[in-house]
Amino acid sequence: MSKSKEFFQNLIKPFKFNSGKDRQNGDDLQKIAQQEQKHFPFEILVAATNNFHHHQKLGEGGFGPVYKGKLDDGREIAVKKLSHSSNQGKREFENEARLLARVQHRNVVNILGYCVHGQEKLLVYEFVTNESLDKLLFKSNRKSELDWKRRHEIISGVARGLLYLHEDSHNRIIHRDIKAGNILIDDKWIPKIADFGMARLFPEDQTHVNTRVAGTNGYMAPEYVMNGRLSAKADVFSFGVVVLELISGQKNSSFNLDVNAQGLLDWAYKLYKKGKILEFMDPALASSAVPEQVAACIQIGLLCTQGDPQLRPDMRRVVILLSKRPGSLEEPTRPGVPGTRYRRSRRPPGFSSSAGTSGLSDSHSSGSTFNTNTASASASTSALASPLRSDPHGKRPVQS
Ligand SMILES: Nc1ncnc2c1ncn2[C@@H]1O[C@H](COP(=O)(O)OP(=O)(O)OP(=O)(O)O)[C@@H](O)[C@H]1O
């Protein structure tokens, strides 16, 4: 081969594939290489977010602020700066973040990587274009875009994502905080579960297992609230609440449609018992609903929110039930009462106990679903004897 020809062949080599198989191998290798590239240099994130400019801020949740960013290659990202209350060491954080970045499913928000910079710990997510489900359903004028087909697909997608987290990912992941606000919707209306793995990144200390990472009012399974018993069935309960919210268009924690019902779940159960289940449906669904599908999904929501965790189906069964013809579903028993839980944080200096205790009965009390017995049980079983203060984000009451 002449020198000039050899030079030309070498030049085009990276772009040349002999067969489809070669191309696929090339693509696969590139994918693997990309997946292994989990660490993001801090400067890249600074550049991507315009130095974490407040205009780039998407919001701030219980674990810290989230910023929108754009990488040099054009990819849009969401960067979560974890709050300093995560006392995890650098090595431990990196290990966990690397594991979490391997969690990949079309119904789970992908973690692209992580960054540690001094005290700062950051997680880099794929950016999900549309709003979160709670904004679409409860806070915007876009609710009409959620017709029955979309709501049904969201229910099925979240069920599959949760099944993956519970059973199919390399590590069994219990989410702990399934709620409409943690379901992001992409531009194709595909639901993606956000905020998984926080329990791993914010580990508990020996004496207060299960108390720092708490769920959100109106979604937490009673057994988790009462005695900190956390299992995949607690996620199933929260999933059931999301299903019932999605079908009724009502937020559980502020439900007030029926004074005779203790809350959204109780309302659904009563209507079910009276054979009037379709009255539970959001009137906005009237023109798009498939009545037997709606009735089946409400029944599945009720099965998931049963008080006894043993009776709740696991997510594998839920996925099967969602694809089944209605009529062959089990009879749900009475739903559990979701409750409020308190998480620990460091006591601020000079914090008075009388100020804190008001947290027990304040606006975090989950509306009509809050149960004071639950609060006291929670207080006695989860080392909650010390004072309480409000979560700055108004969602999770925090124990001081
Ligand atoms: N990957 C993402 N793509 C697009 N927006 C995101 C992404 N992750 C988070 N957000 C947005 O950032 C904001 C803050 O999210 P975050 O999950 O931290 O808190 P939250 O859901 O508001 O509260 P909580 O911590 O109680 O769950 C929300 O508006 C959320 O929709």
TrEMBL record:
The family database entries (InterPro entries) matched by this protein are listed as: CR_Ser/Thr_kinase (IPR052059), Kinase-like_dom_sf (IPR011009), Prot_kinase_dom (IPR000719), Ser-Thr/Tyr_kinase_cat_dom (IPR001245), Ser/Thr_kinase_AS (IPR008271)
- Outline the segment boundaries, as ranges, of region: Disordered: 327-400
The answer on whether this UniProt entry bears the keyword Lyase reads no
Instruction: List all Low complexity biased stretches.
Output: 348-386
**SMART domains assigned to the protein according to its UniProt record, in alphabetical order:** S_TKc
What's the short name of a Pfam family annotated to this entry?
PK_Tyr_Ser-Thr
Q: Keywords for this entry?
A: ATP-binding, Kinase, Nucleotide-binding, Transferase
Drop me one GO molecular function for this one: protein kinase activity
Residue ranges of every copy of the Protein kinase domain listed in the record: 52-322
Q: Which PANTHER family does the annotation name?
A: CYSTEINE-RICH RECEPTOR-LIKE PROTEIN KINASE 3 (PTHR47973)
- Protein name, as recorded: Protein kinase domain-containing protein
Give the species.
Answer: Hibiscus trionum (Flower of an hour)
